[in-house]
Amino acid sequence: MRDQALFLLACLAPGLAPAEVLSSSATGFVLEQRIEAPVSPERSWQALVGEVDAWWPRDHTWWGAASTLSIEPRAGGCFCEHAGARSAEHLRVVFVDAPNRLRLLGGLGPLQGMGLQGSLEFDIAPRDDGGSTIRMRYTLGGYSATDLSEFAPVVDRVQGQQLEGLRAHLEAEG
């Protein structure tokens, strides 16, 4: 319960771009957000899977600046965090269609410890101007003693922060 309370407090930071809560109930929720990137889908893909350590917010890792994040873009691959002898599997890669779609399964942060299961999906599409649109969708469900609809707006803010990190990373070079 302490971890859940800290998670809620840490995620209520102002100024984060919210994702859209598409659906929410006591047993789960669906969130979605889109960003426009000034780079090609291929470059967006490269940053998504190969440079996650550069754009994922450090305050949403287990060990902050002491850790390194990586995504293995293959079925069975790991979205992992390493900090010396400590490590965490944030999500498991289950679907890769480079440079179009990446799907990962698992519960992020404290949701993992609650035994919940989620699907995080990134879709990348080309734009007419040579840039790309990146859609991120997170679907979470499972049994919880806590009404999961209470978590939706909090996770919504965190998802917005994560995707904004990717946008800023891509815009810095675009």
CATH class: Alpha Beta
Total strands: the figure is: 8
Spans of at least 5 consecutive residues whose pLDDT stays below 50 are 1-18
Helix fraction bin:
25-40%
Overall mean pLDDT stands at 90
Strand sequence of the main sheet, in spatial order? 1-2-8-7-6-5-4-3
Strand count, sense and barrel status of the largest sheet are: 8 strands, antiparallel
What would you note in describing this structure?
With 174 residues, the protein is an alpha+beta fold. It has a single domain (26-172), classed as Alpha-D-Glucose-1,6-Bisphosphate, Chain A, domain 4 (2-Layer Sandwich), CATH 3.30.530.20. Helix content is 28%, strand content 36%. The protein contains 5 helices and 8 strands; from the N terminus they run H-E-E-H-H-E-E-E-E-H-E-E-H. The protein has helices at 2-11, 41-50, 52-55, 110-113, 152-171; strands at 20-25, 28-37, 68-71, 78-83, 86-97, 101-105, 117-126, 132-141. Strands 1-2-8-7-6-5-4-3 form an 8-stranded antiparallel β-sheet, covered by helices on one side. It starts with a helix and ends with a helix. Mean pLDDT is 90; it is low at 1-18.
Give a short synopsis of this structure.
28% of the residues lie in helices and 36% in strands.
Write the layout of secondary structure elements.
Elements lengths: L1 H10 L8 E6 L2 E10 L3 H10 L1 H4 L12 E4 L6 E6 L2 E12 L3 E5 L4 H4 L3 E10 L5 E10 L10 H20 L3
Antiparallel strand pairs: 1-2, 2-8, 3-4, 4-5, 5-6, 6-7, 7-8
